[in-house]
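Re: that backbone. Tokens:
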């Protein structure tokens, strides 16, 4: 039997070793821990081959783009400019991915330096829970990581600086603009009664798989008519359902844990409002929009960082150090299940050159099996 997830499990194991060392070491060693974690992440993912699915679309765009030609698809000018520049300099697509990963690693490392005391565990949760971001959503991940640098200024109530940084993130993906919301959710926690109400109806929508999103889009398209009606129909017809997933139980467990400890969290500010509120944004999008894979991949993942921060600090709520061991075990399990597919077969360009045509065939077979 093929064991495609083996390299990823080894990667997680390395971070687990670093995690235990991190929690035993003195404060002054944290910088070395962060740099080591960042370096490993960069080498593993920066030099990856054609892993995942969206590499095919990115590679095609990269092969055709040039600084001499700008089209309607180049509206995210930060990403487009870098792709065109690297292409015109004669650099390969793999070199472009390496550079983008370097940017992502730097930004993630900076975010953790300012906002987290659990560096290694943050990498474990990121890799095991959000592989789609790292491997397939090149633009989205970069955009989000740029935007979350604004949290530092949101906490200091420097809203203009925060807004400028978030708007800059749209140069890599337009959905970054929605993170402007975090500027307004830092002062106060969402009300408990509101969260409970939204959770109840969200669970109903999720279980019954009520597709109200497509209904709204179709209705808006029919009202506007013309080209917009056509575009609305293409969105609703091509979109796939995210469906009922076992992983939602893990999110619901954390949601219930936060609600049970709501008064203690608020009175003692155990979790900063910006992380607390953003985490509920993430979970409610999963519940209410599970019939739209597009919405899940584009909007819930905007708040992945809040999920990482809260999971890494669960021991604050559950006063038992063993909870971290449970989190690591779940991450191991999810890594094994998620990456144990041919489409995620790992290859590293430092050791071997990946075959474009072989990986293209694997990708096509994965999409056929999915349908």
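Recovered sequence:
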């Amino acid at each position: 039997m093929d064991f495609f997830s083996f390299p990823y499990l080894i990667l997680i194991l390395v971070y687990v070793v670093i995690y235990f060392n991190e929690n035993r070491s003195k404060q002054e060693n944290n910088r070395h821990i962060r740099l080591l974690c960042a370096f490993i992440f960069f080498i593993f993912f920066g030099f990856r081959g054609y892993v995942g699915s969206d590499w095919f679309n990115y590679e095609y765009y990269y092969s055709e783009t040039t600084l001499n030609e700008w089209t309607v698809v180049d509206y995210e000018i930060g990403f487009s400019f870098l792709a065109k520049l690297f292409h015109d300099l004669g650099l390969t697509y793999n070199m472009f991915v390496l550079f983008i990963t370097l940017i992502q690693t730097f930004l993630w490392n900076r975010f953790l330096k300012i906002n987290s005391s659990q560096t290694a565990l943050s990498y474990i949760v990121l890799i095991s829970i959000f592989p789609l971001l790292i491997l397939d959503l090149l633009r989205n991940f970069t955009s989000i990581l740029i935007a979350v640098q604004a949290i530092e200024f949101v906490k200091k109530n420097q809203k203009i600086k925060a807004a400028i940084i978030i708007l800059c993130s749209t140069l890599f993906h337009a959905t970054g603009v929605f993170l402007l919301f975090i500027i307004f959710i830092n002062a106060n926690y969402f009300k408990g009664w509101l969260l409970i109400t939204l959770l109840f109806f969200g669970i109903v929508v999720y279980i019954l798989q009520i597709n109200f999103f497509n209904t709204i889009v179709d209705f808006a398209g029919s009202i506007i008519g013309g080209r917009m009606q056509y575009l609305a129909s293409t969105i609703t017809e091509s979109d796939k359902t995210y469906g009922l997933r076992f992983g939602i139980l893990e999110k619901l467990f954390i949601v219930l844990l936060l609600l049970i400890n709501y008064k203690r969290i608020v009175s003692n500010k155990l979790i900063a409002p910006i992380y607390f509120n953003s985490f509920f944004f993430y979970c409610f999008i999963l519940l209410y929009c599970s019939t739209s894979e597009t919405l899940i991949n584009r909007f819930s993942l905007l708040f992945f960082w809040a999920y990482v921060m809260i999971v890494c600090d669960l021991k604050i709520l559950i006063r038992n150090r063993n909870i971290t061991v449970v989190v690591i075990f779940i991450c191991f399990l999810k890594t094994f299940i998620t990456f144990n597919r041919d489409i995620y077969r790992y290859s590293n360009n430092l050791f071997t050159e990946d075959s474009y045509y072989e990986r293209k065939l694997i990708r096509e077979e994965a999409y056929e099996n999915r349908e």
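The radius of gyration is 21 Å. Residues 238 and 294 are 10 Å apart (CA to CA).
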